[in-house]
Design goal:
alpha+beta, Rossmann fold, Arc Repressor Mutant, subunit A, 10-stranded mixed beta sheet, 37 helices, 20 strands, disordered N terminus, binds adenosine-5'-triphosphate, transmembrane helix
Length: 960
């Protein structure tokens, strides 16, 4: 959505101390008129008036024609025009071209030519296009000083470098060589700029000035040095007509996590794209100039200013626009933007080619205030529709070579209605806020607002000397004034010296997932774990890469929008990733939320609804992670991405004699729709698994998404919180819950229905987003498509029960007491029955029985009458002993005590792990036989394509 500035910002001069109560909205700014500096025409003598009149008339004539080219800017107010200057530059362009290019002349032309050539040498042949570009800028965007100054600076640097290079090429003449000598080289500018360096070393001069010339191109094209590779690649791809490669895409993707489509991140317009824009623009009634002007000038701000858009039309029955809207509309119309008081009358697909072609993204520009202008500045709105369909990919599935898998068509997720830029409701809130500030004598003003789908963020700027607290203390009064209890104050807006007041829109909009996935940022990368999150308060699409989170906690009260978010996430994955790329484990204890996905081939196991089974599945994920880690370590890789890349490149080979076929690992996404249910059945086990997974799984390509409607400390424990760095908080029922999720208040003020605070890893301030919405029909269509291509092949071992704990019959119900007794005896190293009686508050018979059990487990020696028994286990071995008594199968290699009483030889856990690993599931380093695998439930024939073992490859997929 657009950001627009209201006319209400006070200049420091206007503020004049805290007592000023002048309503700022009514302040008439000084018009920014070039004429105000000049003497009134009436005071000039008539011949001068005549010349000025003719000059200006001619300027307006040519300026008018140039403004009509491309996006029509012909209604630029008179006082903003600089047609006189534009005329000067255009005359300079054609004047210099007549003698420099076309060799025409006469005495005047020859004199002027001498001046130019004496000054710039033969570099003066470059002057006509520079003047021409500049004249177009001055005619079309005289007020855009940032761009105009940058272009002027770029041309100046280029001229200096060009003249210096010409100086070297011309043999480094000096003034003594006279006009002939220096005009045949770089002119006077060349002598001054390049003479000294060229006299030291011509080669050095060529290197230095070539670099300066290159720098001038960077200035002209507004290209930061770090963007050069991306720009070059863009040019290459455009020339070759290729899409970005997967590697590049993910490479780019490394750099962002939460990706708001800021103007600075807009893709560059390439010439080919500009050409496409031109063709599309002609369809849309836009003409040539816009399409070529920006690549030539190459600035992001140009692109944002020249957003072509669907031509608006007025529908019958529409309300009359307000005066503010009309003013804003006028400016927008000049910029070729859709106007606020009109409605889009263009179908989604009509708008797409244009926006795609020029690489526009839906982005909100920061609001700005022009102290000399009273007009409400409407900044470019995002395009009515996202730019292009999600690129279709068909993949040859690697795990079953003969299956070709096509990702779902973009059409499965229809476009939503265009977002609104500003409505009358926004204007009345601005008025209410301004009134409130005035009533309480706060020297501050509403300087603009940016409208998001659910809330609008109004920006308030303070006069110097006014405390921020003066505004924040007014929160209740503001709520009262705007008749909303859900007012959230941001002080300051991150990255801005302004206070943000977020107020719900009376007319909310739904953000549909299709639009988010078709946004430029989502399409910029093919990374399979990228999901559509929603839209932020400035109307920018937010996408996030789940692989970079690397784990996400989703929390919010019931009905706040968690499940809808989880649905959007899953559908994003189904839309973008093949089952080879991403596999999922879904845990849905509520049994209703995720049933729609039952049977999709991305699932590794049927949807788990039993909390106990879910806890076991998490343990499987831990084992899976360990297996992957071992594999990475054995092959010398640090991250699964590197491993996969190497496998795809064919540079990873199984050890001699192994039948293993090397295949990339898919990402594994584990989604738990209600963590509380799991924590109720097995809090310790679930927490342990989650902590282990979250601490390590990132490199193994395993990512957790934990959703809960009970973000209390017993569900989201400190340990879980510490290890799940990214958070998505939907409306919570209390500020305490908000603190549990975000470590700060705020979520309790959210509005529900998808309104959320998104805090990706590494950010300190959450971003408010309206979550993307996907309907049941859309989900069904996508799921049907996916299931229609492949059947799910489940891995048996995920849902299989973890190795059973063997509790000896003779312990019976006394396990807890026995464990306590063991702990007591081992820590005190005192085997006394009466101590057990006292400490455990049990009778003599029970204490004696416990002591017998301890003897049978080798913890204490035999009875020696009334003497205390010998304690055979050292305190260091207590943990293993307890595990053995509990019957844990994986108790650190089985050290400690074995039933039967004989202490076993202690086994180093690391040695045990290595032994396990060496014989594990990958088929290298040993000749595995089916029995080995069968007898080893944790060792899965996982990536091994060896069908001789009777079963199908666990990852293989069957086509229909
Ligand atoms: N992103 C969204 N856009 C629009 N409406 C939404 C969005 N998310 C949720 N809603 C609305 O809110 C309702 C509840 O959402 P949802 O079922 O996702 O909540 P929940 O937090 O999962 O609740 P529960 O915990 O009870 O399942 C939805 O039926 C829908 O009407």
């Amino acid at each position: 959505m657009a950001t627009r500035s209201s006319p209400a910002r006070p200049s420091s001069g206007q503020r004049g101390g805290g007592s000023s109560r002048t309503p700022r909205t009514t302040k008439t700014p000084v018009p920014r008129s070039k004429n105000s500096a000049a003497p009134p025409e009436g005071q000039l003598v008539w011949p001068v008036r005549l010349v000025v009149g003719i000059w200006q008339g001619l300027g307006h004539l040519i300026g008018g024609a140039i403004r009509r080219m491309g996006t029509d800017k012909s209604d630029m107010p008179l006082d903003e025009r600089r047609d006189g200057a534009g005329l000067l530059f255009i005359l300079l362009a054609f004047g210099t071209a007549t003698f420099e290019w076309w060799g025409l002349g006469g005495p005047v032309a020859t004199a002027v030519q001498s001046v130019f050539e004496g000054t710039f040498g033969w570099f003066s042949v470059m002057l006509p296009p520079m003047f021409l570009v500049f004249s177009v800028l001055v005619f079309r965007q005289p007020g855009n000083m940032a761009t105009n100054n940058r272009v002027a600076l770029g041309f100046s640097i280029m001229t200096l470098a060009g003249c210096a290079l010409a100086q070297v090429a011309g043999g480094n003449p000096n003034i003594a060589d006279g006009f002939e000598g220096i005009s045949a080289a770089g002119g006077m500018v060349g002598v001054v700029a390049g003479g000294v360096v060229a006299s030291v070393s011509p080669v050095l001069a060529i290197v230095v000035y070539s670099l300066v010339a290159f720098a001038s191109i960077l200035v002209l094209t507004n290209t930061p040095v770090r963007h050069i590779p991306a720009r070059l690649q863009g040019i290459y791809e455009t020339l070759m007509g290729t899409a970005p490669s997967r590697e590049t895409a993910s490479g780019h993707d490394q750099s962002y996590l939460y990706d708001h489509e800021e103007p600075a991140k807009k893709p560059r317009r390439s010439r080919a794209k500009a050409k496409a824009a031109l063709e599309a623009a002609e369809d849309e009634g836009l003409a040539l100039t816009e399409a070529f002007a920006t690549p030539l000038i190459g600035s992001d701000d140009d692109a944002s200013q020249e957003t072509p858009s669907a031509a608006p039309s007025v529908r019958p029955g529409m309300r009359r626009p307000t005066r503010d809207e009309l003013r804003a509309d006028k400016i927008k119309a000049r910029q070729g933007l859709p106007t606020t008081s009109e409605v889009y009358d263009v179908q989604a697909h009509d708008a797409e080619p244009v926006t795609e072609a020029i690489g526009m993204v839906a982005a909100a520009e920061p609001s700005f205030f022009d102290g000399n202008s009273a007009a409400t500045q409407a900044m470019p709105a995002p395009p009515a529709m996202p730019p292009a369909p999600i690129p279709a990919r068909s993949e040859q599935l690697q795990l079953s070579g003969d299956v070709t898998y096509t990702l779902p068509e973009s059409d499965y997720l229809p476009a939503g209605p265009p977002g609104k830029d500003a409505t009358a409701a926004n204007d009345s809130v601005v008025a209410a806020l301004t009134d409130t500030l005035q009533q309480f004598n706060v020297d501050a003003a509403v300087t603009g607002f940016s409208r998001g789908p659910t809330v609008t963020r109004y920006e308030i700027e303070l006069a110097p000397g006014t405390k921020v607290e003066r505004v924040t203390a007014l929160s209740k009064n503001i709520s009262y004034a705007v008749a909303s209890s859900d007012v959230r104050i941001l002080s300051p807006i991150p990255g801005k010296s302004a206070i943000g007041i977020e107020i719900p829109n009376a007319d909310k909009e739904v953000v549909v997932l299709g639009d988010v996935l078709r946004s430029a940022n989502a399409r910029r990368t093919e990374h399979p774990m990228v999901m559509g999150v929603g839209k932020d308060v400035e109307g920018g699409f937010v996408v996030a890469n789940l692989a970079k989170m690397p784990h996400l906690l989703v929390a919010g009260a019931t009905g706040a929008g968690k499940s809808s978010f989880v649905n959007s996430m899953i559908v994003s994955i189904l839309m973008r990733a093949t089952p080879d790329e991403v596999r999922m484990v879904m845990v849905d204890p509520k049994r209703v939320e995720l049933t729609a996905y039952e049977g999709v081939p991305h699932l590794i196991t049927p949807i788990i609804t039993n909390p106990k089974k879910a806890a076991e599945a998490l343990q499987w994920v831990v084992r899976e992670m360990d297996t992957r880690y071992d594999d990475l370590a054995n092959f010398g890789f640090k991250h699964i991405d590197e491993f996969n890349k190497a496998v795809k490149a064919g540079s990873v080979h199984p050890p001699e004699g192994s039948k293993r076929v090397m295949r990339p690992y898919p990402y594994l996404l584990v989604i738990v729709d209600e963590l509380a249910d799991l924590m109720m059945v097995a809090p310790r086990d679930v927490e342990d698994s989650i902590v282990r997974i979250t601490q390590l799984a990132r490199a193994a390509g395993i990512h957790l998404v934990l959703a809960t409607q009970r973000p209390s400390v017993d569900v989201v424990t400190g340990l879980i919180k510490a290890n799940v760095p990214s958070r998505m908080a939907f409306a919570t029922s209390s500020v305490t819950d908000s603190r549990v999720v975000l470590d700060q208040p705020g979520a309790e003020k959210l509005l529900g229905q998808g309104d959320a605070l998104f805090l990706p890893m590494g950010k300190s301030k959450p971003v408010r987003v309206q979550g993307a919405w996907v309907t049941e029909a859309e989900i069904k269509a996508v799921v049907d498509h996916v299931k229609g291509q492949l059947q799910a092949t489940y891995r048996e071992d995920v849902a299989a029960e973890a190795p059973k704990k063997v509790i000896e019959d003779d312990i019976g119900d006394d396990l807890d007491l026995l464990l306590q007794a063991t702990e007591l005896v081992v820590t005190t190293q005192f085997g006394s029955t009466s101590m057990l009686q006292r400490k455990l508050r049990v009778g003599f018979a029970k204490a004696g029985r416990l002591m017998d059990l301890l003897e049978s487990r080798g913890v204490v020696g035999p009875s020696e009458g009334s003497k205390a028994r010998d304690v055979l286990v050292k305190p260091d071995d207590l943990a293993e002993t307890l595990a053995a008594i509990r019957g844990d199968g994986d108790a650190g290699g089985g050290a400690g005590v074995v039933p039967g009483g004989e202490p076993a030889a202690p086994v180093d856990p690391m040695t045990a792990a290595l032994a396990e690993n060496a014989n594990a599931n990958h088929g290298w380093g040993g000749d595995l036989v089916a029995d080995d695998l069968a007898s080893r439930p944790q060792a899965v024939d996982y990536n091994d394509g060896d069908d001789e073992e009777g079963g199908e490859d666990a990852w293989s997929l069957t086509g229909r």
